[in-house]
Specification:
alpha/beta; three-stranded antiparallel beta sheet; about 20% helix; single chain; 5 helices; Rossmann fold; six-stranded mixed beta sheet; about 200 residues
Length: about 200
């Protein structure tokens, strides 16, 4: 079978710990052909999504893959499957990738469907689980998620330390720890969390 991996650039990966490379090694060992593209390699042409791709020729344990560029752009729907393995940040570039790939969702099997990547935000997943009955509210840490308006922190929000995380952050960027977010102007704590990343 012929698979396309859409992920970060190969040269920036950590071969000892990257799970995508482990999947690629296993697929190659099973005789599958693997092509690799980044979000920047994709484009829409006449209603179809295409990509400039590299063929993975080999991927030894604890090593980066050996690649060979394929000159002709490939149509996404020509693959037996597409694995969306791009790391955060979940920013406008990531959303654009998902919107583009969503056009092909019915035409080719996708691991990590773009419509679901857009639908289920990681910071909302615990509350989705509460809503569906998989978790109780007591199992989730107290959470206040403003949408950017000047909302005060709720009166009954627990006193003490709080951790502030941006909606679109990743890898601990802009995560802040504060003491008693109950201040006259709690919005000042939240302003850095509302910016686009």
């Amino acid at each position: 079978m012929n698979f396309l991996v859409i992920a970060d650039p190969v040269r920036g990966l950590k071969p000892k710990s990257d799970t995508t490379l482990a999947i690629v090694r296993d697929a190659l060992a099973r005789g599958h052909e693997i092509h690799w593209a980044t979000a920047e390699d994709l484009f829409l042409w006449e209603g179809r999504v295409h990509a400039r791709v590299d063929k993975i020729e080999g991927c030894a344990e604890n090593s980066l893959p050996v690649t060979d560029t394929i000159k002709e752009p490939q149509s996404i729907n020509s693959y037996d499957g597409v694995w969306i393995r791009k790391d955060p940040p979940f920013d406008t570039s990531y959303m654009g990738l998902c919107w583009l790939l969503a056009l092909e969702e019915e035409n080719v099997p996708m691991l990590n469907k773009p419509s679901l990547l857009l639908r289920y935000h990681e910071k909302m997943l615990p509350w989705e689980a509460v809503e569906k009955g998989f978790l109780s509210q007591e199992e989730v840490i107290p959470t206040f998620l403003p949408t950017g308006r000047r909302f005060p922190v709720p009166e009954n929000f627990p006193r003490g330390e709080a951790v502030l995380k941006p909606w679109l952050g990743h890898g601990g960027k802009d995560v802040r720890q504060v003491e008693n977010p109950q201040t006259p102007e709690p919005y000042t704590f939240l302003q850095p969390l509302m910016k686009e990343v």
